[in-house]
Amino acid sequence: MASQTLTDARNYLWLYNTQKEDVETGKVPVIVRGEGNYVIDDQDNRYLDLIAGNTRANATGYGREQVARAMYDQARKMHYFSSANFISLPAVALAKKLAGILPDELTTTCFVCDGSEAVETAFKMAKQYHLNESGQNRFKIISRYHAYHGQTMGALSALGFLNPMRNAMAPLVPGHAFLIPPYCYRCPLNLTYPACDLACADALDTLIQFEGPDLVAAFIAEAIMQGMGALPPPDGYFERIREICDTYEVLLIIDEVITGFGRTGKMFACDLYNIRPDIITLAKQLTGGYAPLGAASTIRKIADAIDTFYHIHTYGNHPVCCAAALKNIEIIERENLVAHAAQMGSYLLAGLKELQKHPIVGEARGVGLWCAIEIVKDKDRRIPFKPEENIAQQLTLAGKDHGVIFRGMGNALEFAPPLSISRKEIEAGLRAIDLALDDVEKKLDF
Ligand SMILES: Cc1ncc(COP(=O)(O)O)c(C=O)c1O
């Protein structure tokens, strides 16, 4: 019988993007506690968190007293005052801290409440920059098929999937165009790297020309795409993209909402791939999930061109959230969690590659502590399962039976544990994934 919490959740709470039937049938755990890299549900089941709060936000693990204390102290001293016309000390300190650790040229930050708002802010910065600098009303934004940039209307308009999230909210913001993604396992151009000579990046040139160079404000790209499950770019991809953006003075926005603050084994994926963005978007591991905060940081040239930025959020620059971020980053640095993520990530990827022995695992890929395995029905022909076969749900439920939480994404399963995960925990997680794959394969007669 459903617990009172499930009944109440079913009746009174909108769970994001979750079927009510799954709540009723108990497929949605009620998470009540977190300890280290584990979470515990209301039935006292313990799960190893292989996906950092399911959104890949958690950097330092659960129950960090120091972060809680920093938030408490800030709330007691000054919990909130407007972010316009008044200055909050933690916001200034955090902006200065970011200027010190972000890739070189990024100096100036605007804080908002989450990743979607960070993306909206980046779009607005790009538009106002062009207007102030050259009087051009550049309003178009180019993103990529399979891209995910969030749920507010501008960010949603840059979503590169045809799915209910997009279709149900139409019409979306005009002026969005899409580039083919660097999805090498299923190349949209049927080419093979490196013989392809990065044709998918070169296509940006043609697209900008088609859309009108004087109308395109920015190109936005995740450093590593989440849409089909942790897709790293091929070597040289972002260098080519940067050249094309420079040719047309189109701003390059790199979305590091997932990759920022160590997930790839570098503090930022821009450091890993030597990307020089004009604007970077951040959220998730900025506070590790302890408080809602997003940010868009930009280079001096853009910051100088915008005297008054026409943008405001009641909870932008929130002192308690900025205090949480400062403490979270301090822990990431003090415990060397970025280097740790690089080392743990190589164990995780090596273990996932061994799982390619399974008939339904097509490819294991990833960087640092963000990895995925591509699930296929026919390995030789790389044919995925049909959406109605619910393969990801079957596998994630089997994972829970074996005490681990991970998630499905496109045709893939994704793994992105807190950066604080240990080698022993990774080994336990890999064993559980192996067993979950066995269970589902047995059920499906593989
Ligand atoms: C790359 C990327 N950008 C933006 C967002 C939106 O962030 P939020 O859900 O905090 O609004 C997400 C969320 O998953 C994301 O993965």
Q: What does the model show?
A:
By secondary structure, the protein is an alpha/beta fold. The protein has two domains: 36-60 and 336-443, Alpha-Beta Complex (Aspartate Aminotransferase, domain 1), CATH 3.90.1150.10; 66-334, Aspartate Aminotransferase, domain 2 (3-Layer(aba) Sandwich). The protein has 16 helices and 15 strands. It has helices spanning 4-12, 20-24, 52-56, 65-78, 89-101, 115-134, 153-157, 164-167, 199-211, 237-248, 269-273, 300-305, 319-334, 337-354, 391-401, 423-443; strands spanning 31-35, 38-41, 46-49, 106-112, 140-144, 176-179, 216-222, 251-255, 279-282, 294-299, 361-367, 370-375, 404-405, 407-409, 412-415. It has a seven-stranded mixed sheet, with helices on both faces. It has a four-stranded mixed sheet with strand order 1-2-3-13. Strands 11-12-15-14 form a four-stranded antiparallel sheet, covered by helices on one side. Helix 5 (89-101) packs parallel to helix 13 (319-334), helix 9 packs parallel to helix 10 and helix 14 packs parallel to helix 16 (423-443). The mean pLDDT is 96. Residues 55, 114-116, 119, 148-151, 222, 226, 255, 257-258, 283 line the site of pyridoxal-5'-phosphate (PLP).
